[in-house]
Amino acid sequence: MYSADERIILGSLVIVYFLFLFAISVWINKTSIKTYDDYNVAGRTVSIFPLILTFVGTAVGGSTLLGYMENGYSLGMGQQWINLGTFFAGLIMLGFFLDKIRAYGDKYDMVTIADYTTLRYGEGARIPTVISILVAYSAITGMQFVAIATILNLTVGLSMTTGILVSWVLLTLKTYFGGMKSVIWQDAFHGTIQTIGLFILFVAVILASGGWSSIQQNASILNESANLSLFSSITPQEIFVYLLTIGAYQFVRQDLWQRYWAAGSAKVAKRGYWISIVVAGLTGAAVIAIGVMGKYGLGLTDANPTLIYYAVIGDVFNFPMVIIMIIALLATVISTADSFFMAGASSIVNDIIRPRMSQYDDKKLLLYSRYSVIAVSVLSLVLALYIPQLVNLWVTGTAMLVSSLLAPIILGFYWKPATKKGGVAGMWTGLIVAVIWQFTGHPFGIHPVFVGLPISTIVTVIVSLMKAEDHVDLLAEEREVEVSS
User: Of 388, 381, 387, 394, whose CA–CA distance to 162 is shortest?
Assistant: First the structure.
């Protein structure tokens, strides 16, 4: 794809870029990380600008950039419904859940989702919560190793195995030293690069395509005008699937909850998230449109869909700009990878180690937080190297998260009679059903979440009604706090 000289330049810049990120992490470690909260929730003092960009950085990852563009190229503008589903989920999160999540985090100094589920449903809820989160986040972190290795393979010529090992070492080191503070501030940098870079690419592709009328004409010549419609190559059933999988996943993403708690105030958390879902929605829409315009505007009809990003930037830019766009792609992947790294590591130190300590020791917890990063990195590396169906594992992980946690969390927020036994039973049932359904190959063509989530909901409600006397009345406690304040 690139000449020998170009690969040397790209390789050198990638190394310099990672060294730059590592240096920032070491500097933040020495100057800003003193406590357990500093490392895991950035000291709960993040201001509006870096918060917006870290939200955008986690929302627009490598799978969004490369996957959305591939879908737009192959299937047309109808893929915008995937993006709209995620945006709609963001609005629901903003309107119904963010304030509650933030309030619980403020009152109980929460670090992970398991802190909430354990508060609401007792210690029995901790294990199913941790299992669901660790599997999902280790799998998706491993996916980021693969994504970076793919970039290094295509640009520098490294083998996939070497690329995975290189990305593992570099990401582990920078996350080990910098923690969540480093992740958020680097996300601010990465979010700026990826957002500006993608919109520059969007404008460049429109100009190179000759405008929308030229795109319509080229699509008509290929007898594929339907692919320019929002209703192309997608059915209402598929839209519903995206809404309840990709969309519902947003409600139980630990990396998002941690950012709500990392914000300097509830107002900053809400404003930052609102702006970020708008920016992420526009970015996703632009990425899908670039894929469509690459085919019908630039005439890249014979391109490999999985490599359409590289084909588009190579068509509209000279090599110096291609370098910038490769860095933008790396920034996109890295901003997702380190966020999921920290989410998984927090579950180990906060939900497995901390409950077993006889007394709270901030220095030990800070040290164990770093060790937890290493543990997640090793597990993610194993998944990346030895499980070829890594995407399937990620799908299983997200299905486990939604099936196990979504119903008990929502019912815990809004349904007073939800009991400890009901919540725990719902978590375990949803978790087990989702796993079985995934590994039996989606019987009847039904996604695991469409089985696990309803069953989890039903079990939580039925068991709660059978044992209504043991519920934890957190809703009443919230009202008392509001009255007293």
Answer: 381
